[in-house]
Design a protein that fits this description.
single chain; 15 helices; Cytochrome Bc1 Complex, Chain A, domain 1; 21% strand; globular
Length: 422
Amino acid sequence: MPPEEFQTLAGPGGLEIQLLPTRAFKTVILALVVEAPLDEQRSARALVPDLLSRGTASFPDLASLGARCEELFDTELLATCSAAGGRQLLKLGVETVADRWVGDVPLVAQAAELLAELVHAPPLVDGRFVPEHVEQERVNLVRALRGLDDDKGSYAVRSLLATMHADTPWAHHAWGTLEAAQQLDEVSVRDAWTGLRTAFPARLFIAGDVSEAQVADVAERLAAGATREAPSAPEPVPQRTSSEVQRQREDQDLAQSKLAMGWRLPSELLPGAAAGMFAEIFGGSASSRLFKRVREQESLAYGCGSVALPDSGTLLVQAGLEPGTAERVEQLVGEERERLARDGVRDAELELARTALRRRLLASQDRPGERLHFRLRGLLTGRATTIDAALEQLAAVTASDVTELARGCALDSVFLLEGRAS
């Protein structure tokens, strides 16, 4: 039996509703996802979801808010800041038990009331956030941004993307910069909150066993009389601005070097599932070409893999390797790409990749959070927005599609974080 799929509904004040009506899950997810630009104010906005999840006017601290969540059958709060499709995404939501499992308790309505208060009625004092709360969350954000640099693989990838997509939104991290986070104050954070709750485009995701009346009630509570802009169309893929490969190198006292390579994928070949298949065959698993050649045959890397980022038209290759071996690893990656472009894809590896990707898609339909994430990314990037559509695209990919992508991709940027033995 095919899974139920999301429906798009018009909500009050420009709020777009994404509804997945299903009894397949024991829980109901209510999540407001606000879209904002990846601009200079993104650090202030990044702090808001965690700040709002500290309390409400009715439950002004973590202890009382936690007690309320326990009363609501351990309702879980959802608060994240991320980026996709060249936009910053701020999510605040709840996941609660569906009403049919709790007798006469109107749990979904109570959870919706709590969510609306989290978004619109924080525990302000004289119209301002509690200074200690802002400072604590500012310190947490600064610590998180510093932590990004401690993960050296992530640091290499972020450095690569910042170079490859300079002067575009894809060069920016959703949390902003360390310098901006260090300078945040209550006024800038309050201004960011005001924009999120009333002005920026937003989608309300509802997944679970809910009635039409409950959907309308949740939407009215979250809209709160505001008029928002409609969510925008997917951003175009950034284009290459130079024919020369951009190279950067940084040396640190590390036992293991990190190599990140960014390839531009031809934009005309991005629709469909071919890019994902290409990345899976090239370096997506232990059976991929890069893993077998670079790690197993040559023993030059602890790991070497690839992933496609279709919203930015990027094929990302990453490797953790011994200091002094990056040049040889880069050569092997290039040779495998050329071999794939020249000789094509074997039927066995094509079907192995298709089976792996199909299995991941089917597994995601059993988890409501992943269903929401899949739908959102599809809406933001112009890719498949339903599991069925994604499966159809996957089934349609041919060996020639993958070969054409291998031929059309071009190396754009390379970042090497070279280790130095202590």
